[in-house]
């Protein structure tokens, strides 16, 4: 029987979740724009995730935009799961992602996201990406105010450096950091190693986006395939297990629009890699 057997982590010291979560970005239409072709199937994925013991779901106001947040509400799982959403990133007509950390905008978006999700308080509200046109401290201060006002329970960051994390910690209790991270990233891409080290030191949850490298693991693909053969598993399952064993604060959020793929991801929590295998994938 497939079920989420990952151990747990307390987000913000109080929201206990299984460390293998779910990323809802892929429930949207192509290129993360508009609704999916089959909304019933998307809601079924969310409901099945909850049935399997996945109790942490990540989304953002810009996914769709607003589509995945709405689907979470319609699936009837928002009250069963810890729901994390984000603000601070927009899409233009060409599909480019644009940072927008203006305090007034963030204040508006928290109300919009709350309505879409159908909740009184957002469990985890994340600053999606620092805005070069808005002082970082001003944006983070707005998130801190939203927490003080009870609109959000906890505050997270995304796409930040260690220095930005330290700055934010002087303003608000940071519950999570969400940065790109996977075993296939090059040394240049793995700048988040330092961020992960800081998260471990402070007990902050680290949420890797692109935990499976969006299907491109580069030179690491052969190593993943070799280890997968040893365990009668898929390379993707090995990558997820690496995340879970690589650090006790890591909360991988693989996304999918398929129930079968979801179950395959959750089955990775039955896998255990050797120390040598972890080391090979961590090089």
TrEMBL record:
Gene3D superfamilies found in the cross-reference section: NADP-dependent oxidoreductase domain (3.20.20.100)
Q: Which SUPFAM superfamilies match?
A: NAD(P)-linked oxidoreductase (SSF51430)
Which GO molecular function annotations are given, in alphabetical order? oxidoreductase activity
Species this protein is from: Halorientalis pallida
Where would you find the membrane-spanning parts of this chain?
none
Protein name in UniProt: Aldo/keto reductase
**What are the annotated GO cellular component locations?**
cytoplasm
Keyword annotations: Oxidoreductase
Pfam families given for it?
Answer: Aldo_ket_red
NADP-dependent oxidoreductase domain: which residues? 19-282
Specify whether Oxidoreductase is a keyword of the entry.
yes
Decide whether keyword Oxidoreductase is in the record: yes
- InterPro entries in the record, alphabetically? AKR, Aldo-Keto_reductase, NAD(P)_OxRdtase_dom_sf, NADP_OxRdtase_dom
| Domain of life of the organism encoding this protein | Archaea
């Amino acid at each position: 029987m497939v079920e989420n057997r990952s151990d747990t982590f307390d987000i913000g010291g109080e929201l206990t979740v299984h460390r293998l979560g779910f990323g809802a970005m892929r429930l949207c239409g192509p290129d993360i724009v508009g609704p999916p072709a089959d909304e019933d199937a998307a809601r079924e994925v969310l409901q099945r995730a909850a049935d399997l013991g996945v109790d942490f779901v990540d989304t953002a106001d810009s996914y769709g935009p607003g589509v995945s947040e709405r689907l979470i509400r319609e699936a009837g799982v928002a009250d069963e799961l810890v729901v994390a959403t984000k603000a601070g990133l927009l899409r233009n007509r060409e599909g480019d992602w644009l940072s927008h950390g203006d305090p007034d905008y963030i204040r508006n978006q928290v109300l919009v996201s709350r309505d879409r999700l159908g909740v009184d308080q957002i469990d985890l509200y994340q600053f999606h990406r620092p805005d070069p046109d808005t002082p970082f401290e001003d944006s983070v201060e707005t998130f801190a105010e939203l927490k003080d006002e009870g609109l959000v329970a906890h505050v997270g960051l995304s796409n930040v450096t260690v220095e930005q994390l330290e700055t934010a910690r002087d303003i608000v209790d940071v519950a999570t950091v969400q940065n790109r991270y996977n075993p296939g990233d090059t040394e240049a891409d793995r700048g988040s190693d330092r961020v992960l080290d800081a998260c471990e030191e402070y007990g902050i949850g680290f949420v890797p986006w692109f935990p499976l490298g969006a299907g491109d693991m580069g030179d690491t693909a052969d190593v993943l395939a070799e280890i997968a053969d040893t365990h009668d598993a898929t390379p993707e399952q090995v990558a997820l297990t690496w995340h879970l064993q690589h650090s006790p604060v890591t909360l991988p959020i693989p996304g999918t629009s398929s129930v079968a793929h979801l179950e395959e991801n959750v089955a990775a929590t039955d896998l255990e890699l050797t120390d040598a295998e972890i080391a090979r994938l961590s090089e």
